[in-house]
Amino acid sequence: MPNHKSAQKRSRQSLKRKAVNRSILNNIKKNTQEFKSILNSSKKSSTKSEDLIKTLGLLNSSLSRAVKKGLVKKQYVSRKLSSFSKQIKKI
Prior knowledge:
Number of domains: 1
Helix content: over 70%
Largest sheet: none
Shape: elongated
CATH architecture: Up-down Bundle
């Protein structure tokens, strides 16, 4: 347990930040899994591509938010989005 008032405050702040960071990273994982499941599903190609584009937008948003917060690097996001875009173009 921290003894100083400022150390107690930093402890509280770090717990709040940890919760926010976890939620952002979980959102990225959820959107990535959703994208991959739609990609591997056996839907018709027209509805499948629309769903993929919609999911890619959500994924882009959550990844950009993570970069802004400093949770992931910009190059990681760029690589992921490029990879997912190529997979959409194959369909």
